[in-house]
Write a structure and sequence with these properties.
Blueprint lengths: L1 E4 L4 H13 L4 E5 L19 E5 L5 H11 L3 E4 L6 H6 L2 H23 L3 H6 L1 E7 L24 H20 L3 E6 L2 E2 L8 H10 L4 E4 L5 E3 L1 E2 H14 L5 E4 L4 E3 H15 L11 E4 L14 H7 L7 H14 L1 H7 L2 H11 L11
Parallel strand pairs: 1-2, 1-4, 2-3, 4-5, 5-6, 6-11, 7-10, 8-13
Antiparallel strand pairs: 9-12
Helix pairs in contact: 1-8, 2-4, 4-6, 7-9, 9-11
The chain binds nicotinamide-adenine-dinucleotide (NAD) and thymidine-5'-diphosphate.
Length: about 350
């Protein structure tokens, strides 16, 4: 079996669901169930004996060591992290604890487990570290997309903490020989994404008739990847990636934020028309994020050329599926909008609306 960390979060849950839909191999899922972890994402696996859920912290060395000994996984896929840039600006401490200290402790426990293996299980073992394109910093207009050798220039507490964890993963391969694979992925979107990130926030706010808060001029560019394409890329890297190598994963979908929000509004206008007119009238420009990275873009040539992986969805097909999923799963949305979620929205957006903000 494999051990997955953070498998109750957005990408981790999609990965576990797709994995168990596509193969028989079991999954031990270690997740602390922070605000971002949600057992409802895994509800369809409630009766599935191949899925073993353990609520716990990756930084709990005794627990992780015990799980490794008990289940003897052939691989660990490490998703668990604090993942939201805005939260890292408000409170970086948990990012340092989970993303850096937690990853370090996980690596230590895995190193000792791996040392204890022999022969083929030792040779075939893999630790796959899931990271982000944000570690490379911000690109200027016209600058070439990030390749795997791009210099690390993280700009937010989130990306700095992920960069630190990438360096630890690299060092454990270089120093101890641990068979580490690292993936650096662009912005994901799709089902089960917590509505604090751009795309689900815009869908959920629009459906509630609330303002759609676009930071700054809305011309910041992200490179969007449908979450199921990310999951298939990770499975492919696990299967065929070379230990010590880094693989950038992206969807070749660079788009300014305002275009994304307009696309969502256009889809909602067609799928769930409103008497007040277009959802675009809800777009509200708000104060920019401090240190906001202007552009990310992934060059995914390496994973495509060496491992034969390609995304299946275009942005148009992926965003349509995503909007439809949120329309079909309103009870999931209601359930994640807990007291803690509402408190976050109140703190983060209050006082942020620019006096001169344009409402279209
Ligand atoms: P998420 O915030 O939705 O989920 C994170 C999960 O990790 C949650 O289930 C949470 O409970 C769990 N977790 C947090 N701290 C933990 C701890 N100490 N011990 C055990 N579990 C813990 O995040 P996501 O969007 O699913 O991202 C998953 C990974 O992918 C992260 O490493 C992130 O940096 C990376 N990534 C995300 C994106 C994106 O667009 N979402 C893009 C590139 C890379
Ligand atoms: P986000 O989904 O938080 O991902 P990341 O910061 O990791 O790229 O944000 C995506 C982009 O959308 C980013 O440029 C910030 C912008 N954004 C807004 O304009 N308004 C919002 O309310 C949010 C959450 C994000």
């Amino acid at each position: 079996m494999i051990l997955v960390t953070g498998g109750a979060g957005f990408i981790g849950a999609n990965f576990v669901l797709d994995w168990l839909a596509q193969c028989e191999e079991g999954v031990v899922n270690l997740d602390v169930l922070s605000y971002a972890g949600n057992m409802e994402n895994l509800a369809t696996l409630a009766e599935d004996e191949r899925h073993i859920f353990i609520r716990g912290d990756i930084g709990n060395s005794a627990l992780v060591s015990e799980l490794l000994q008990r289940y003897q996984p052939r691989a660990v896929v490490h998703f668990a992290a604090e993942s939201h840039v805005d939260r890292s600006i408000h409170g970086p401490e948990t990012f340092i604890q989970t993303n850096i200290v937690g990853t370090f402790r996980l690596l230590e426990a895995i190193r000792f487990y791996w040392y204890g293996l022999d022969g083929k299980p030792k040779q075939d073992f893999r630790f796959l570290h899931v990271s982000t394109d944000e570690v490379y910093g911000s690109l200027a207009k016209g600058e070439a997309a990030f390749t795997e050798t791009h210099q690390y220039q993280p700009n937010s507490p989130y990306s700095a903490s992920k960069a630190a964890s990438d360096h630890l993963a690299r060092a454990y391969h270089h120093t101890y020989g641990l068979p580490v694979l690292t993936t650096n992925c662009s912005n994901n979107y799709g089902s089960y994404q917590f509505p604090e990130k751009l795309i689900p926030l815009m869908i959920v706010n629009a459906l509630a008739g609330k303002p759609l808060p676009v930071y700054g001029d809305g011309q910041q560019i992200r490179d969007w990847l449908y979450v199921k394409d990310h999951c298939s890329a990770i499975a492919r890297v696990l299967e065929a990636g070379v230990p010590g190598e880094i693989y950038n994963i992206g969807g070749w979908n660079e788009k300014p934020n305002l275009e994304i929000v307009n696309s969502i509004c256009g889809l909602l206008d067609a799928l769930r028309p409103q008497i007040f007119g277009s959802y675009r009238s809800l777009i509200t420009f708000v104060a920019d994020r401090p240190g906001h990275d202007r552009r990310y873009a992934i060059d995914a040539s390496k994973i495509e050329g060496e491992l034969g992986w390609k995304p299946v969805e275009t942005f148009e097909t992926g965003i349509r599926k995503t909007v439809q999923w949120y329309l079909d799963n309103s009870s999931w949305v209601e359930n994640v909008q807990s007291g803690a979620y509402l408190a976050w929205v109140a703190t983060h957006y209050q006082g942020r609306v620019d006096e001169d903000s344009v409402v279209r």
